[in-house]
Each structure stands twice: as structure tokens, then as C-alpha cells.
Design a protein that fits this description.
This protein is an alpha+beta fold and 152 residues long. It is 18% helix and 15% strand. Strands 1, 2, 5 and 6 form a 4-stranded mixed sheet that branches. Strands 3-4 form a two-stranded antiparallel ribbon.
């Protein structure tokens, strides 16, 4: 695996990052892997406390990352080109923060050196996410934890 350039997140734009640097930005919170429902009338997104079936809710990492797009048809691949468009990403997300010109949070593993801090700070879904496979499809609305208005 290629080496990461020193403090690459501060020195390069998202589209200048190597694939390894891009992947290293992930803070491991798992919030992007929570199920979402779109309101057909407004376009607003309801975020559920249910995780994608591939998310390991302890590590908050995809259990089959390389094959996720084939196994989960509505999985969205985040890319540097699309980072600005994903307004549903949490404000804490490293990809969103950098796309908006903000710095990484102090708890981010690239800053503090501790990949468990995201969990101890309560930012990850580890403490509450339920795998979607444990909930009947008819009961999805019972698991809404937030609604994200879509900005025109």
C-alpha cells in the first residue's frame, strides 16, 4: 500500500488525493451507512437508526467494502467529485467538512491518532444502530431518528 502524504488533508484538495488518502479520510462513524427514506413529495430524507445490512455495527465499517455496490443496489459511492452534493452526510463527516472548506475535527483519527475516539465521543452509530435485517420493512418509519430537509 502506498504511503500517505504528510497532513494530506490540509495540503491538497479532495480531487488531488490518492485513493488511499481518500479512503483514509473516513472517520469510521458509520453514519453514511444508516438507511434513509426519501419523502416523495418534498424530497426530504428521513434518516433511520437502522444500518445497511453490510455494516458491522461494532467497527462501523462495511463488512464487504469491495463488493458493496454490487450487493447493495442503493449504496452510494462517495467520490471527490460528488462530495459537495451529499448534503445528507453529517456535519461531522470528514468528507463533508473538507468539501465545505472546514478542518478535520479534533477527534478524527488522522488528528488524534486514535480510531476509537469517534466511538467514545458518541459520534459513531455503534451505540444505537440496529441492522436493517432485524426490522420488518413495514416498521421502517418507527425507526426515524432525523429528517434532513433537501435544499433547493
Amino acid at each position: 500500500m502506498a504511503e500517505l502524504r504528510e497532513r494530506f488533508w490540509e495540503r491538497y484538495s479532495l480531487d488531488e488525493l490518492t485513493q488511499q488518502e481518500w479512503e483514509a479520510l473516513c472517520d469510521g462513524c458509520g453514519q453514511c451507512c444508516l438507511r434513509k427514506l426519501e419523502d416523495e413529495d418534498t424530497g426530504d430524507l428521513a434518516v433511520l437508526g437502522l444500518s445497511c445490512r453490510l455494516l458491522d455495527t461494532h467497527s462501523c465499517r462495511c463488512s464487504d467494502y469491495d463488493n458493496r455496490l454490487a450487493k447493495v443496489p442503493d449504496c452510494t459511492q462517495l467520490t471527490p467529485e460528488l462530495a459537495h452534493q451529499f448534503k445528507w452526510l453529517p456535519h461531522s463527516c470528514a468528507y463533508r467538512r473538507l468539501a465545505e472548506g472546514r478542518k478535520l475535527a479534533g477527534w478524527h483519527h488522522l488528528i488524534c491518532g486514535d480510531p476509537e475516539r469517534v466511538h467514545r465521543k458518541g459520534i459513531s452509530v455503534r451505540s444505537f444502530a440496529i441492522p436493517e435485517t432485524e426490522v420488518d420493512e413495514a416498521d421502517l418509519e418507527d425507526h426515524i431518528i432525523a429528517v434532513i430537509p433537501v435544499e433547493g
